[in-house]
C-alpha cells in the first residue's frame, strides 16, 4: 500500500509519537528530581526556614498597624516596637484571663474523669460484655506492665521533649527578632531586589511577590476573623451550657481555625469530650449541635464569602495540602500548608497570564458553558440528510 504524496508513513508517525513521549518522559523525570531535591533542601534547612516563614506570616498581620503608625510620623523602629509590645500584651492578657479557670477547674475535670472511668467499668460488667472484675483487673495489669516495659522509651521521650521545648523557645525568640527586622526594614526589600536582579526579572519578581504578599495577608486576616467568630459563638454556647474551661476551649477553637477543616474538627471534638466527661451525655450532645451549627455557618456562609477573594482554592486542594504538610512536617506543616498552597496557586496564575500574553490567547470566563464531551458527540444521532429536490423542469 502506497501513501499519497506529501503524507508520512505509519512508521514515521509512530516514531514521532515515540520521540514526543520520550522527551516528555525525560522532562517529567527531571521535574520530579527537582522537586525531590527541593524537598531535601527544605528538610535540611527547616530549622532556618521555619522561623522565616512564621515571621513572614506574622508580618502580614502586623504590617497594617505598623504602616499606620509610620504614617503618623513614628520612626520605623519605634512603630514596629510599639506594635510588637501591644501584640504581646494582648496575648499575655488572654492567657492571664484563661489561666485561672484552667487551674481552678482542672481538679473538677479530673474527678469527673475518674467518675466516668468508674461508670465505664460498671457498664463493662453488665450486658452485653458481662466482664468480671478479674478480667478487668487483668486488662489493667497488662496495660500497666506494658507501660513499665516502655519506661526507658518514655524517659528518652521526656528528655527529647525537654530538648524540643528548649528548641521551641529559641525558635520563638528567632521569630520575634525576624518579625521585628522584617517590619522595620521590609519596605527596602523591593528596591534592593530591583537593583540586584535587573530587568525584566526584577519586574516579574516584584509583581509576583506583591501578589503573594497580598494573598497571604488576606488569608491570615480573613482566617483570623472567621476563627474569632467561631470562637465567640462556640464559647458562648459553652458558657450557656455551663461547660468547664469554656474560655480555654474558645481560645483553642480560635487557634485551631488557622488549620482549615482539620483544626475546627479537632477543637470541636475536644469541646464535646470535655462536656461529656464533666456534664454528661445530654450536654455533650447539645455542644455537638452547637459546634456543627457554627461550623456549617462558617463553611457555607463565612468562608465562601470571605475567603473567595483571598485564596481562591478548592476545598479538595486545601485537604490535600493539609494532608501532605502534616505528613511531611507535622502540626506546623498542617498550619503552613494552606498559605504555601495559596502562594503556589498565585505563582501558577501569574505564569498562566504570561503564557496568555505570549500566545495572544484570551482565557474563557469561568461561567462559560462547557462544550459537549467527545462521548456526548458520539452518542448524538446524526441529523438526517435532506432529500434531493427534483428539478423544476421534471414536473
- The total of beta strands comes to 0
Structural class, by secondary structure, is mainly alpha
* Helix share, percent: over 70%
The count of helical stretches stands at: 12
Note the beta-strand portion.
Answer: under 5%
Kindly state the mean pLDDT as a whole number?
Answer: 74
Looking at the structure, what is the overall shape? extended
Main β-sheet: number of strands, strand sense, barrel status? Answer: none
Order of helices and strands: HHHHHHHHHHHH
Low-confidence stretches: 157-165
**Terminal Cα separation, in Å?**
48 Å
Describe the structure in brief.
The chain crosses the membrane at residues 21-42, 48-66, 78-99, 154-183, 261-294, 315-348. This is Permease. The chain is built from twelve helices and no strands.
